[in-house]
Amino acid sequence: PHIENSGQIKPIDDATVHKICSGQVVLNISIALKELVENSIDADSSIIDIYIKEFGSESIEVIDNGTGIKKYNFQNLTLKHFTSKIQQFNDLEHLCTLGFRGEALSSLCSLCDVEISTRHYSVDTGTRIKYNADGKIISEELVARQPGTSVILKNIFSTLPVRRKQFLKTMRKEFTKLCTLLYAYCLIPSGIRYSCTHTTSNGTKTKVVSTDGNKSLRENIVNVFGIKQLATLIEIKLVRPEEEILNEFCVSLCPGDELPFEIDCLISTAVHGSGRSSSDRQFYYINRRPCEPHKLMKLVNEIYRQFNSKQYPFVYLNITTKSSLVDVNITPDKRQIFLQNEKILLAIVKSSLLEAFKDLPSTYKM
Ligand code: ADP
Ligand code: MG
């Protein structure tokens, strides 16, 4: 045996446990940004501004004009499993916030330097707070600011040397993924005005995205991807699946049964595919939560391939269903989702897409 007392089973110390688990919650910079953006959305913000330095390796800052944070929460906010969003398990059934696990900020503290500046709307001054790796307050000072919250992360993954090194090698690619994830939040009609600016270490500034905060999906698509992209899209109307498609997915529906899903979908026409990979410009949501429903994504791409075998489509697909039929608590990043009646959903999406494509000219068809 290489380890002293190797036969004895002993607890890992708390700080080590915390670091090990945090690395699983915040896997990469996209998830770090996603957690901050979701917190700003949950705080009822109407403006969210993001500033990223050197592809995220220097800093990531998210500034919102939401409710702000009350003084008595300054310490609780970064403690593991402390949340203002749920109190007991049953609350998940009618969850209306994106967060609920109370572990993003505590995890971020153990992975990078975290500084929060906030002013609750009920008070006149703001406070800037710095936290240590255990999420404990190191310093607190008064600052002048508008109501709302700014969270700044510096030196991300500095406490996980292997991940930091890997990230520095691949940061341009990671940054592209981060932008795509951010677009998912910008596209969904929410009335929130987003902006994101990237500054490189030599001072070059680029605007990654900016939306008007309009409530329309089409306007958001124009803001994020330009008018040309919008012109290539068609709207998919929900079609009740016929017996044949239901059988294919081994499900049945009685004639009078209400469908358990509604869909809201724009997709490229068959002659207007674009992306070289399916992850390029495809955005899926369940009850407006951006996520990666793998089976649905695979199905959409398979069907599209029947009409255009050379390209991938732009996809915007939001599924609406009762929140009691959705389990988002599968992975810490909540990107995987368990859906009751998933096979019925697949049948609905298949019928709806086939109906929409049937009269359109296809291209590159094999
Ligand atoms: P969760 O979002 O799951 O509750 P987090 O660790 O992301 O857990 O955040 C902890 C708590 O901090 C939240 O429940 C919320 O009360 C508060 N909080 C975090 N970010 C903000 C913000 N931008 N504005 C207001 N409150 C915030
Ligand atoms: Mg959160």
Automatic annotation (TrEMBL):
> Which stretch is the leader sequence?
none
Residue ranges annotated for the DNA mismatch repair protein S5 domain, each copy included: 221-358
Q: Which domain of life is it from?
A: Eukaryota
| Protein family per UniProt | Belongs to the DNA mismatch repair MutL/HexB family.
Tell me the protein's name: Mismatch repair endonuclease PMS2
In terms of the parent sequence, the fragment covers 6 to 371 of 1046
